[in-house]
């Protein structure tokens, strides 16, 4: 085997192990969607606080991704990648053994910390290993297929493990799942870029970003129990604005910012980040309420719920790895993204046809396939634009931003839609004295679906307004004037 063939073979193996590591992260996000009702009952978690089992992970993950991306740039992506993966597995074990709600939430937050180290390194290593436009599109197609399959595996495994063992195994299973990519990373992953040890870490920026995002999500949570006009709720939102504004001002002044503002000034990257956040806001919210619709209203078992989610997850794999990857060599990314978000919005609106007595097929089946297929198609080019025309020194931070967008969007979506749905359910019961609880719950879920569809329509507008990059086989791989592009 020639040296060139060996390098190509090793690079493909590295891609497989890198993507598999990210699969473990996605798996953990999905697996608790199905296991959440059982965990809620076992640990006596209230309806208002149940979303924190999801958001305690996504919030910390999103808040620290910038720091994780910068650590990869400064210390070496492979090193940070392996540390993040090992730590993530350990945190998963702690969550699976958690005796109380507090320890479970702490373990989920710890998962977020190590996931924030892992995720930016994943995209950076892929971006720097596959610099050519067409080759990169194929690499991201493989990455998307493996990663999005994590949702399918997570949903199915979460149901089976919860029903036939218990919900704790939904977290403990990450221990064996993480061993293979750890070994593979040590043997095959290469990071040929030189770490920049001259730059300083922006710790104050990381603190401001994390606290600001935390206050924002917490405000949405308080709105459910205290109301939107309550002083504590408004205070949380005001604090979030103050902290995030201070973060932006700090980034404009410090020598080595956590988030160089130049990364956000390129319109295509900004459009990809914002539209992805809006897309995941919808997906996280819809997934949460479909879980409770199936288990609470339709009385599905956890295993049956996991199986019921498979059409959505499989369609998402096909959308990202096949449809999105193929279209990206023929159409502009913005065209694919706008069409995908629009199709997903229409599919979400189909969920308004669900009622207490609605069967799984055809409405829910068609809606799931549409949401997965169209959203997977849209998110694939959005992910590929994360490092569009970015210098190698900023590859980690730019790659972190797409993960930040999706995780923060998911956190806000879970908190916001949970608040809106719960409030709508309470209001329905107040005005319909003889209403059954399930009818009230479905009414609340419909409210959440409407807002989720609105989020996807807004993603269409953002994409049309900002994303104008050419397709990769035109001149995407051509370097910008400064000659530092990695895409």
TrEMBL record:
UniProt xrefs under Pfam families: MFS_1
Gene3D superfamilies: MFS general substrate transporter like domains (1.20.1250.20), Multidrug resistance protein D (1.20.1720.10)
InterPro entries: EmrB-like, MFS, MFS_dom, MFS_trans_sf
UniProt domain Major facilitator superfamily (MFS) profile: residue ranges: 14-471
Compartment(s) where it occurs, according to its Swiss-Prot or TrEMBL record: Cell membrane
TM region(s), chain numbering: 12-31, 51-68, 80-99, 105-128, 140-161, 167-189, 201-220, 232-250, 271-294, 306-328, 335-354, 360-388, 408-429, 449-467
Its membrane topology: Multi-pass membrane protein
Swiss-Prot/TrEMBL keywords: Cell membrane, Membrane, Transmembrane, Transmembrane helix, Transport
PANTHER family: BLR6921 PROTEIN, MAJOR FACILITATOR SUPERFAMILY MULTIDRUG TRANSPORTER MFSC
Designated name of the protein: MFS transporter
Organism encoding this protein: Micromonospora vulcania
